[in-house]
Amino acid sequence: MDFHNSVAVYKVFRNIFLDDESNSVRLGVEHGFDDEQAEQIILGAVDEGYLDVVKDSDPREYTVDFDKLAEQWSVLWDEELDEAPVTPQNFESFLKSYIKSYFRHEKHTSLREMLVEEFYLGLTRSENHGKLSKDFRELEEELGDFDGKRSPSEHVEHGLRHR
Fold first, then answer.
1. Fewest beta carbons less than 10 Å away: which of 38, 96, 115, 141?
2. Which H or E run contains 3?
3. What are the start and end residues of every segment in region (Disordered) (predicted)?
């Protein structure tokens, strides 16, 4: 399963996060997912470490593993640049805040769009508005001339406020 480029995967992760904990049945009833599709995504995501099983839950409930998503940021940028960029101090807490803000506000996207395309555009826009600290300006410069589709700087700015 292509976790990085699937809108369905993003939507499952987003709804599990918004529900605080969730399972495939709840996703089907509350969010209109096909039960089999949701279950397939969830089981694959657990195997890959994107979702954690809530201890002693019956039926099984899941939470999003934000450490895994933060790790995927480096994996995806390594694919884009042929090496993972050096990140500022406290970057992981910034990135987790960014992802949570993104999940709260963006309904239809993919992990790649969230962690690469829109992340970079958000950094660039925040830089243009003078809202980046020196260490994040250096990161923005290191990411180079990446070009994406949108400019959702509010998620980057949210991450900067909560790092």
1. 141
2. none
3. 143-163
**Contact assessment for residue 84 and residue 71, using Cβ atoms and an 8 Å cutoff:** no
Q: CA–CA distance from 152 to each of 60, 94, 126, 155 (Å)?
A: 34, 15, 9, 6
Full set of structural domains in the chain with CATH: 7-64 (1.10.10), 66-161 (no CATH)
What average pLDDT does the segment 109-125 reach?
Answer: 92
d(CA 91, CA 18): 23
Q: Is the pLDDT of residue 4 over 80?
A: yes
pLDDT at 124 over 90: no
What's the confidence (pLDDT) of residue 142? Answer: 87
pTM of the model: 0.82
3 contacts 64 by C-beta, under 8 angstroms: no
Which residue's structure tokens are 């470490």? 49
> How many residues are there in the chain?
163
Residue 134 CA from chain centroid, whole number: 24
Backbone angles phi, psi at 57, to 5 degrees: -90, 140
Q: Which residue has the higher pLDDT, 83 or 100?
A: 100
C-alpha torsion sign, points 39, 45, 47, 50: negative
Contacts within 8 Å (CB) and 24+ apart, 29-33: 33/8
